[in-house]
Amino acid sequence: MKILIIGDVVGRAGRNIIQQELTNLKSKYQVDITIANCENASGGNGLTEKNAKEFFENGVDIITMGNHVWDKKDIVNYIDDYTNLIRPANYPDPCPGKGYTIFEKNGIKIGVINISGIVYLNNLICPFTTIDAILEEISSKCKIIILDFHGEATSEKIAMGYYSDGRVSLVYGTHTHVQTADKRILPQGTGYITDVGMTGPFDGVLGVDKDIIIQHLKSRRPVKFEIATGIMQINGLYVEINEKTGKCEAIDNFIKVIE
Amino acid sequence: MKILIIGDVVGRAGRNIIQQELTNLKSKYQVDITIANCENASGGNGLTEKNAKEFFENGVDIITMGNHVWDKKDIVNYIDDYTNLIRPANYPDPCPGKGYTIFEKNGIKIGVINISGIVYLNNLICPFTTIDAILEEISSKCKIIILDFHGEATSEKIAMGYYSDGRVSLVYGTHTHVQTADKRILPQGTGYITDVGMTGPFDGVLGVDKDIIIQHLKSRRPVKFEIATGIMQINGLYVEINEKTGKCEAIDNFIKVIE
Amino acid sequence: MKILIIGDVVGRAGRNIIQQELTNLKSKYQVDITIANCENASGGNGLTEKNAKEFFENGVDIITMGNHVWDKKDIVNYIDDYTNLIRPANYPDPCPGKGYTIFEKNGIKIGVINISGIVYLNNLICPFTTIDAILEEISSKCKIIILDFHGEATSEKIAMGYYSDGRVSLVYGTHTHVQTADKRILPQGTGYITDVGMTGPFDGVLGVDKDIIIQHLKSRRPVKFEIATGIMQINGLYVEINEKTGKCEAIDNFIKVIE
Amino acid sequence: MKILIIGDVVGRAGRNIIQQELTNLKSKYQVDITIANCENASGGNGLTEKNAKEFFENGVDIITMGNHVWDKKDIVNYIDDYTNLIRPANYPDPCPGKGYTIFEKNGIKIGVINISGIVYLNNLICPFTTIDAILEEISSKCKIIILDFHGEATSEKIAMGYYSDGRVSLVYGTHTHVQTADKRILPQGTGYITDVGMTGPFDGVLGVDKDIIIQHLKSRRPVKFEIATGIMQINGLYVEINEKTGKCEAIDNFIKVIE
Ligand SMILES: [Fe+2]
Ligand SMILES: [Fe+2]
Ligand SMILES: [Fe+2]
Ligand SMILES: [Fe+2]
Ligand SMILES: [Fe+2]
Ligand SMILES: [Fe+2]
Ligand SMILES: [Fe+2]
Ligand SMILES: [Fe+2]
Fold first, then answer.
1. How would CATH label the architecture of B2-202+231-258?
2. Which of B64, C255, D202, D219 could join B148 via S-S bond, C-beta 3.0 to 4.6 A?
3. Considering the entire predicted model, what is its pTM?
4. Which chains does C contact via 3+ CB–CB distances below 8 A?
C-alpha cells in the first residue's frame, strides 16, 4: 500500500497547489491513498465545507485537522456528514465529528487517526491514553494504521512515535509547518517523522506574509494575517506499508518548490 | 571561511561524541571555526566549567547556550572568564556573561551572537530589538556574523531569518533538538535553518531516556531524567561564508549516526 | 485628594451601572477624581470610541485598559485623540496611545499610569523597568501618582506593590475580575490591593454567562461569549491621598450589589 | 458542623503559626474539623512526612495539597500511609495517594476532595469531569462534602463554584496565596470563595522574601527562594454546614496578622 501524506495546506495558495499538483504527485508515486492536513486551508485558519468538497474532488482521500479545526464555525454543522474528514480524537465527548476513520481501498482497510498534542497547545485528553483506546477498538479491524499527530513540542511527538512503535504503521507530525529531517523507521517497524511541513507559500512565515508576522512579533499587538504570495511549496511524505504485516517498508519526505 | 555548527550537545554521551568525532569532522570539511551549543552538556541541563574547558580543548572555538544556561549554578561565577562562551543576549542587564563575541581566525573577524526566542520560552527582551542593537555595534567591525537563535516556535525562528537576511551571514536555530529539512540561502544572502538538531543519544527523546519521558507525559508528574544510551548521533551544519561580502555561499546540514 | 477606582467594566451591563450609580458614588465619597478600567466595556472585550465618550460624559475622568485594549480594532484610530484614555505603557514603541497621563484637578497634578503584567499574559516590556522609566519622567511633576497594574499572577502584582512602595501613591491590580481582601498601606506609604474586581453582572463568570464558560471549559472548544444577565455589581476602591506628601492615608474597598 | 479552613501554609514560619495559633482558633470558633492546604509547608514547596505528622499532631484533621504535591520526593513513599492526606484527584491513574477522603466526626461523615485547576497549571484530567465522577461515588455516603479547588485562573474557580452548586457544601480556592473578597453562599446552598489566601509571612510575596522575587522578575533568571521573615499572617475560612441538608449556612473569611 502506497500512501501520500500532505502537510498543512495553507489558504487559497495551498488549495491551488493541490488542485494543480496532486494528480501528478499521485501518479509519480503510484499512490493508493492520499491524506492531507487541511486545518489552515480556508483563509489560513479552519476549513469551509466548500473547500473540504474541493479537496475530495481533487483527489484527497482523507482530511485530517488540528488546533484550528473549529476556526470556521460552520464545521460543527457539516463535519458529521463526511466520513473521511477527521478531527483530533482527544476532544472530550460529546464533540462533533470523529477522531479516526477506517478507509477501504482495493479491499484493504486503512485506519487513519488524528490526535492533538497538548504541550503548548489546548489541554485536551492525554494523547497516549487516546491512542491506546483507539487501537483497542480498531487494531483487530485493520492491519494498516496511520496517525497524524498534530503537535508543537518535539519531545511529545517523538515520545508518541516510540509509544506507538509496532502498533501503528506510521506516525507523522503536523502543525509546525516546517518539515523535519528525521524521517526513519522505528525499531518495531513504524514509520516516523516529527513534522511533514506545509503546503502553500514558500516565502512566508508558516504561510503568512512575513512582514506582517515580523510586525506582530515586534509590536506584540494583534495583526490581520494575510497569506503570503510568490513561489509555492508542497511538503509531504511518501510511504510504503506492507499490507500483510502493517509495517512501514519505505518512507521518503519531499519538499517540492513550484515557481 | 568554513564554519561547522554543532547542535545542542546532550550529557556525557554528547560530550564523548565531540571528543571522538570533532577532529575528523573538522578535517573532513576543512573547517576554520567550530561553534557548538552546549546548554545541555552537563547532566542534560547546564554546563560546568570543567565541561566547558573540555569542549575548548577538544576543538570547539565558541560555545553558545540557551534557556538552560543557568541550570548549573556555578556558571555565574565562571562565565565572565571565558571570552568565547556566550549566553542569550536578551537577558536584561545586569547579567553575568555576554550575548556575543568577536572571534578572530586567520586575521578575519567573525561575530557570533546568541539570542533566545520568547515564544513558549522565558519572557526575555525582544529578540528583534536585540539583534538590531547588536548589529548596530558590530556590523562595522566584522563582515561575517553568525546568529544562534535558540527558540521553540517555528514562526519566530523563520521570522528572525527574514528579519536578519542580508545583515548577518547565517541564522541557525537550536533548542528543539530535531533537525529541520529547510536549510536554504535567503534572498539577501543569509544562510538559514530552523533547527540544527542535537548531539547525543539517537534513540531517546531529545537525548533523554524515552521510557522516562513517556512516563512523565502520561503521569503528568515530575520524573528524574536520565540520558539515553545506545547508538549516538551528531547533528550539525556546514557553511561557507564569503569573507569579502559576508554572504553565505554554501550551507549543508548533516546527521551522522554512530553505532 | 479623594480618588474613586472602578474595576474592569464589563459590557453593556457594566456601562449601565456606571451611568446609573457613578454620580451617587462620587457624591457619597466626595470624590475628586474617578479612574475606571474599561478594557471589557464594549461587548465584553475592547472599547469603542462611542463607549469611551459615554464614560467621560458619565463622570469618569481617566480610562485605563489592559490586555484587551486592541480588541475593538478602531481604537488605534481614535486613542490618540483622548488625553485621558491610557493603555499599558509597556507595549514596545511605536504604539498608538500612551501609557500614562497627568490629570489636573483643583490645581493639583495627578499622574495616572497603566502597566500590564507579563506573567501568563502577553510578553511585553518588563513592568519594573517600565515603572522606573515613567517615574523618572514624572516624579518631579506630580506628587500624586496612581498605577493600574493589570496582571494575572498574584506574585507579580504584590512584587510591583513593594517595588513601587514610597514612589507612587497607589498601586491597584486589575484583570482577574475578582476583588481581593488584601488592601493595605505598605510601609513607605503606598496604598495597595491585588485586584479591585469588576463592574457588571454579579452572577456570571467574570461577567460572562456562567453556562457558556462551563461549556467552554468542559468541551475545550471555542464558544461565543455572552454577557450574563440578572443582578449587577460594582467593585472598586476609595482612597485618600495626602496632596503634600503623595502618601496614601486611607484605602477602602467596596463591592456594591445592585438588584 | 463547624469547619475551619486554613490557606496554603508556607515554610517553617507557616508551620510555627499553626502550632501556636490553631488551638486558639479552633476553640474560638468551636470548630469540629480543620482542613489545611500544606503544599508549601516544607521549605516553601512540598511536604515532608515529618511535617505532615506535626500538622496532624497540632490539630489539623485533613491535609490537602496542590501543584507542589510532588516537590518533596519522599511523598510518593509515604502518602499512601495517611488516610487524611489527599492530593489533587485529577492526576491520571496510576498515581500514589488519593484525591478524596471520607472523614468521620461525631458520627457524621464529611467528604473532603482536592482537585487542581488546569488553566495556567499542569494539564491534568478535566476538573469538571473529575468532580462529577467523585460525586457519583460519594454523594450517597456523606451529606457534607468540601472541595479544595487549587487553581490559578479566577474564571475556572468561579465556574467550578457554580458547577458544584447544590452538589457540595463548600468550594474554596487555594493556590494564589491572596485571599479574595468574594465569599458567598451560592443560589443552591454551596459556600464559595475564590481563594482563602495563605498562612506564613505577611510581608513577603506569597511567603517568599520580596527582594528575591523582585530580583527574579527583573532579571528573568532563576533565584534561590527564601521564606520571608517578620510579621506573620494566618488566612482562612470558617464555615457552618447543616448536617441534615449539607447546605452551607454561614461562611466567614479571616486574615489574622500576628506581630
Ligand atoms: Fe497548521
Ligand atoms: Fe496547527
Ligand atoms: Fe537544548
Ligand atoms: Fe533549549
Ligand atoms: Fe478585564
Ligand atoms: Fe484583562
Ligand atoms: Fe500554594
Ligand atoms: Fe499551588
1. 4-Layer Sandwich (3.60)
2. B64
3. 0.97
4. A, B, D
